Amino acid sequence: MRQIAIFASGSGSNFQALVDAVQGGTLKANIRLLVCDQPGAFVIQRAQSAGIPVFAFRAKDYEDKQAFEREILHQLELEGVDFIVLAGYMRLVGHTLLESFGGRIVNIHPSLLPAFPGKDAIGQALEAGVKITGVTVHYVDAGMDTGEIIEQEIVRISTGETRDSLQEKIQHVEHYLYRTTLNHLFLTTGY
Ligand code: GRF
């Protein structure tokens, strides 16, 4: 069974969906650790409620990205983690983590990549006036949302769609797409 760490920076609704899926038996993995770069983020309370260990840090307390990623690597090793799931982690992953976990880091992004990478993908889609957007699960490389695409699902933008209503539709899709995609990935990669 995969031993995963989830990296998040904010509210953690995707984190919660993955925790619920593991507890409900619909995601075959153990969540060993939450890594969070915002010590005040709500996702930390979610992890504590679920009894999941937390490594929270502030980037500015370290000399550079390499220094805090080395510490993260150490924490991952202590917990026996073999796969990293990014869920709203608002940082580019650096070479320290990529060298150790290359091909075993995935992310979820609220658009149909390569459209609307980076921050505020939902706002970018609304601003562009497109009628179709969606959700992408992809491998992580050194770029901004540029890694190989694993799975995508469409979300339609209705007339009069608001940011809140579109975000709700996208989150609904994210919460099951991440679980089903991870399950498929874990089965087909032999773990
Ligand atoms: C999600 O929309 C995810 O696709 C993006 O960041 C957001 C995180 O939301 N990478 P939450 O913290 O899981 O609610």
Classification by helices and strands? alpha/beta
Count of domain modules = 1
Q: What do we call the CATH homologous superfamily? A: Formyl transferase, N-terminal domain
User: How does the overall form come out from the CA principal axes?
Assistant: globular
Q: Rounded to an integer, what's the Rg over CA atoms?
A: 16 Å
Bound molecules: 5-O-phosphono-beta-D-ribofuranosylamine
Instruction: Using the coordinates shown, work out and report the CATH topology.
Output: Rossmann fold
- Classify the oligomer: single chain
Strand content: 15-25%
Low-confidence stretches: none
DSSP E strands, number:
7
The biggest sheet, with number of strands, parallel, antiparallel or mixed sense and barrel status, is: 7 strands, mixed
Going across the major beta sheet, what is the strand order? Answer: 3-2-1-4-5-6-7
| N-end to C-end Cα span | 6 Å
* CATH C-level class: Alpha Beta
H/E order of the elements? EHEHEHEHEHEEH
SS summary, helix count: 6
Into which percent range does the helicity of residues fall? 25-40%
Return the CATH architecture: 3-Layer(aba) Sandwich
Average predicted local confidence, pLDDT: 97
GO molecular function, one term: phosphoribosylglycinamide formyltransferase activity
Function: Catalyzes the transfer of a formyl group from 10-formyltetrahydrofolate to 5-phospho-ribosyl-glycinamide (GAR), producing 5-phospho-ribosyl-N-formylglycinamide (FGAR) and tetrahydrofolate.
EC number: 2.1.2.2
Domain Formyl transferase N-terminal: 3-180
